[in-house]
């Protein structure tokens, strides 16, 4: 390994642990050099976040109103989607695709589940009810773990003039609580700005 990548692999003491790492950036020469974008895995160190500590006093329940709403919503059936709405079938079968041109490098063939996409469709997504099921949230909500008291910050590059009414139309359709001045605020930095038109990404983020 040292000869192939022109490095020395040494053991280092880091935060009370012994890790193996290369003493300089890997270097590849010869015909393979133009085909390799990066080299990884020469070291055994792992990223650690010292501030990520699990609380020893987890909440035992949510306020009655929040818990009641969670139970009600969890029991709701998903509404019938209009024909011009997004589809919830996000994969349309196993397909084979190729990357690159035959006879040149790099060239590869990939086979697997194909993500749904068409130029005329509204796209693919999942309803709140499907998210509840996929992530087993119903049990958590019933037990009172519904995020009460938590704050979610979304950073986007420009503002949407209609974000609140758009998000509330989504909430009304799927039986979610509305966003109001008591639970939703927009902070402009360094100054107020808006996108040139309706911004689907911002709407998706908030919804």
Quick synopsis:
The protein is an alpha+beta fold and 207 residues long. It has helices at residues 2-5, 64-74, 128-134, 137-142, 163-174, 200-206; strands at residues 9-14, 17-22, 91-99, 108-115.
Describe the structure.
The chain is of the alpha+beta class. Among the domains are: 2-35, no CATH class; 89-123, no CATH class; 151-207, no CATH class. It has six helices and four strands. The strands form two sheets. A two-stranded antiparallel sheet has the order 1-2. Strand 1 (9-14) and strand 2 (17-22) form a beta hairpin.
Share of helix among residues? 10-25%
Number of strands: 4
Helix-strand topology string: HEEHEEHHHH
The helix count comes to 6
Cross-sheet strand order for the largest sheet: 1-2
Low-confidence stretches: 51-55, 58-67
* Protein structure class: alpha+beta
End-to-end Cα distance, whole Å, is 49 Å
Shape summary: extended
């Amino acid at each position: 390994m040292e000869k192939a990548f022109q490095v020395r692999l040494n053991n280092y003491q880091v935060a009370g642990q012994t890790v193996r790492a290369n003493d300089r950036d890997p270097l590849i020469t010869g015909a393979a050099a133009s085909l390799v974008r990066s080299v990884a895995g020469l070291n055994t160190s792992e990223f650690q976040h010292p501030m990520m500590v699990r609380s020893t006093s987890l909440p035992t329940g949510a306020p009655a109103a929040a818990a009641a709403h969670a139970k009600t919503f969890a029991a709701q059936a998903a509404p019938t989607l209009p024909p011009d709405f997004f589809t919830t079938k996000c994969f349309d079968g196993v397909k084979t695709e190729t990357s690159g041109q035959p006879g040149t490098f790099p060239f590869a063939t990939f086979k697997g589940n194909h993500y749904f996409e068409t130029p005329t469709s509204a796209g693919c997504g999942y309803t709140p009810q499907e998210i509840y099921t996929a992530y087993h949230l119903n049990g958590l909500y019933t037990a009172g773990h519904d995020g009460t008291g938590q704050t979610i910050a979304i950073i986007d590059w420009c503002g949407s003039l209609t974000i609140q009414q758009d998000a509330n139309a989504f909430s009304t359709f799927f039986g979610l609580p509305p966003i109001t001045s008591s639970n939703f605020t927009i902070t402009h930095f360094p100054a107020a700005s808006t996108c040139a038109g309706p911004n689907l990404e911002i709407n998706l983020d908030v919804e």
